[in-house]
Every structure is written in C-alpha cells, then in structure tokens.
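Before relying on records like the one below, remember that each one covers exactly one chain. Contacts with other chains, cofactors or solvent are not represented anywhere in the record.
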Amino acid sequence: MELKDTIQGMVSNDFKERIKAELLQLAIRIKKAEIYINGVKHDQRNTKDYILGKQVDAMKEYYEALRARAQLFEIDTDEADREKDLLI
C-alpha cells in the first residue's frame, strides 16, 4: 500500500474513514522510515538519522493513541495494523 491509496479515506465525510486512512498513513510512514533507518549502518548514522529515529518514535506513540481512539469508536484497525507490522 502507498500513501496515494489513502486519499479517498482522507477526504471522506465519514470521520471513521478519515481515522482509518490516517492510521494507514502513519503505518506506511513508520514502515518506510524504519526500512531506511535499518538500512543505515550504525556507525554511519548522522544527526539526520537520529532525528528521523526520534520522529519515528513520536509517530509510533501517536499511532497507538489514534488506534486507541479508533477502538473507542469501534473502527476496524486491522488493515493499518497489518501494514505497520509488515516490517516486524
């Protein structure tokens, strides 16, 4: 899945669809950033890589908060969870 695949959900009038799309976007961004970070040798990482790692940590925390909110509204998070877990 790619970010462009979430456009319909992001412009939906249904807030539940927007939340699902946002979760998917976060999952995609987290996955891509982790693939990049894991591809950089530890001794070759620089300040930009460190900051990206901090950003990924924040995105993961936000993902969990948004996921909890989605569950309160009984929104299915399986697709986003699978997308996020493809790396793991």
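The mean pLDDT is 91.
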